[in-house]
Amino acid sequence: MANSLDFTFSDLIAGYITTVTFPDQFDAQGVIGLRTSDGREYDVKVTYACYAELVRNLGEPFNVAPDIKDILVEGRFIHVYGVFYPEASELKFEAKHLVLFGRTKNHLRFEEQDWWIRQIQQLLNFYLEAQFGVQEGKTIDFRNFRTDISAEGEKLDGQQNLDTISRLIYGFATAYMLTGDERALEAAVKGTDYMRQHFRFRNSSEGICYWYSQIDIRPDGTTRKYIGSQAGGDEGGNAMPCYEQIYALAGPTQTFRLTGNRDVLKDIENTIAFLNRCYKDPTPKGGYYSHIDPITLSPHVDSLGINKERKNWNSVGDHAPAYLINLWLATGKQEYADFLEYCFDLICKHFPDYDYSPFMNEKFYDDWSHDLKWGIHQARCVVGHNLKVAWNLTRMQSLRPKASYKTFAHQIADIIPKAGCDTQRGGWYDMMERTLKEGEAFYRLVWHDRKAWWQQEQGILAYYIMAGVYKDKPEYLQYAREGSAFYNAWFLDYEAGGVYFNVLANGQPYALGTERDKGSHSMAGYHSFELCFLSAIYTNLLINKEPMDFFFSPEPGAWEDNILRVAPDILPPSSVKLTEVWINGHSHTDFDSEALTVKLPTDLKKMKVRCRITPSGVDFNAELMSYENGIATLALAGNLNSSSLKYLREAVEKLHNLTGIVLDGTNLQSISDAGFNYLIFTKQTRGELFSITLRNLQPAVKQALVDSELMEEFTVV
Hints:
This protein is an alpha+beta fold. Helices cover 34% and strands 22% of the residues. Strand 28 (660-671), helix 18 (673-686) and strand 29 (691-695) form a beta-alpha-beta unit.
């Protein structure tokens, strides 16, 4: 029979364990039932050759899982890689590799408070070394930046692309905000200065500036600038794509959030003026054109070919995530909120296309009629663009709520898993046909069934952000976790660092052509860093109610009225508060907890501002201050009671080889009997030599300790 499935093949199943048995059967450690996300059932024989690992973060060694009999637990979500055998009786599947995502059935490592923070630190380390050789003692010099770097981090040519350099700068600035690593700040500031010196064209009399598409650094050290995009064929068409000017602002804007540098702000403002003058359609049709001619700066000339008078997702929707939301967060100016609203209203008006397809339309003619013949795109969709609309609409819903924003976001989130998600293995597909043809049950993949790293970002963020903001559909959190599991299991390159561009459908790395590289016109430190940043924010602050610290380095006098705005993202009103601030390591109390603003001092030439953002309803946190020779020092703040005890327990239990703890109570307001009982029990279970020291206790806490008659159990200093 033609096309019969009569050969063995290896593949991946992502699913939930439904049954566990340990039969007396050849080569079987156990047999499990496995149910996929969309409800399909498999029987899986776990062979003796099968090994299991616990998902690990970048920079971590291989994590061997416990004994098979201990980890095969009903309800647990796992990835199983194995071999299918199409035998006469049935299609059999035998497991060779298991990936677990937590130490217990309900634990998820990638939702630990510092998972994404540690991942962004490792990404930072990779790109600092690949681009500048910092571990070899070299300085950060952006003349040495190159767009194209190999899988191992080696530079491949002399090109510097505009949007790539800017998006890497975004990554550096974002890494500083999460880690406080001074190297990240240095790289962000130097990169922004380099862009402004070498890529910027400024017309001060007109109040505009725009950015060159590319600089080639020749072997003799001379340079050549390109104003028209060289990004291949019809995509750039030797024109000036709107998305390149948009992404030119990604790095400078995120750096501006850290420093408040007014010269950088001026360039941002002048670039927006250029976008509005040359790309914006001033007629009632509205929107932004996708390309303009580099000589006439017009979107209407014939030389643009298929890009003449076109509008698309990138030219309308990419303003928000690339720079505009961050610009609003930094300044609070209503003109930027109005700009956001303008773009999102256009998206809700023109992009839905559900009478035709489960995917939105994203290519348009001048009058917003659908362009179904453009270049390689044709009547196709990019899965990640649909998902990106969903999470950015949801961010906007927290700023200026509208029924249209919520409705469209939910339409995308509800319909796209059945069309664009791999419910067998996990992860999100790339480009797909937008309609089913006669006799088809599956939406066709245009090029391949590989999965790109940036598409995974869109799926993870879409469902985490919607789960955190709307809290109306539990399946959204399920989709977020399943997507995060696939990304963290298969995209992290533990050997060379960074993340893979593409993996095969089954999660194995794809390493051919430019898709094997860690740097290209498509790939830089943007999507992977943005994923870490926003995943940390939404999983911690809205999903799991964990506090987070954010770092800023404001220039003296840069901010209007010396007010630093520190909101990490557009979050639902009153969902978080600013609870603690340190400037240059010293506690600072002049801040507005509800407005998330800090009044900066005027007598400091250099400031490193650390801000603790805490979910509303959480009034306790435990911060690891140091961990040396088995002794952990934790700073406690707020009220330690039965409901907040989990934060202290998590902080203690994730530390390995612990021999004692020092608890600093400078900001601890109270402690309940449950808190004392936990400390006593911890000391009891850790053994005779385990010590607990309490220091800097407030009078009320010290009196509670005396009243508990437990003073002799601790060392109090």
